[in-house]
Automatic annotation (TrEMBL):
Source species taxonomy: Bacteria, Bacillati, Bacillota, Bacilli, Bacillales
Signal peptide residues on this chain, from the entry's feature table: none
Domain Flavodoxin: 4-136
Entries under SUPFAM superfamilies matching the protein: Flavoproteins
Superkingdom of the source species: Bacteria
InterPro entries associated with the record: Flavodoxin_dom, Flavoprotein-like_sf, Protoporphyrinogen_IX_DH
Protein name: Flavodoxin domain-containing protein
Amino acid sequence: MKTLVVFCSNHGTTEKAVKHLVNQLPGEIKSIDLKREKIKVDINGFDFVLVGGSIHAGQIQGKLRSFMKNNIDILLHKKLGLFLCCMREGETAQKQFEQAFPKELRKKAIVHGLFGGEFLVTKMNFFEKAIVKKVSGVVTDTLALNTKAIKEFVNQLENHMDVVQ
C-alpha cells in the first residue's frame, strides 16, 4: 500500500498532526507540505491520498485549494481521506470542514477527520495575533491537537486498506 499525504502547515500544527498520522499508518508513506516544498508528485502512483490543512481567518490555505482544484479529476478516482486542523468543535468545525473541501471530494472521501488545533500565538505575525484575539480572545499559545481523532481516522482508513489488500 502506498499512501500520499498532501498538506499545508502555516505554524506547524498540521505538520504535527501529519507526523502522528504517518507514524500510525501501515505501508509506504510520502508526505508533502505544500507550504514548504515545491515537489511535483504523480498522484497516480499512490493507492490512497490524504489531503489536509488548517483554518486561518476562516479559510483553508490557498495552496491546498489550488492543489485540490488542479488535481480534482485524479483525486475523484483515488481512495481519499480529508482532514482539517481547527480550534472550533461540533457544528462550527463541521461547517469549516465543509467550506474547506469541495463537495465532490467530501462525498468521495472514505474518511473525514477533524483533528483539533492549536493557537501558536508566539509564531503568529501581528495581523494573525489581532485576528485570533478578536475572534477567540486567545492571547497565549493554546494547544488542543486531538490525537484520539487522528487515531480514529487511521483506524477507519485501515479498515479500507484491509479491503484493498
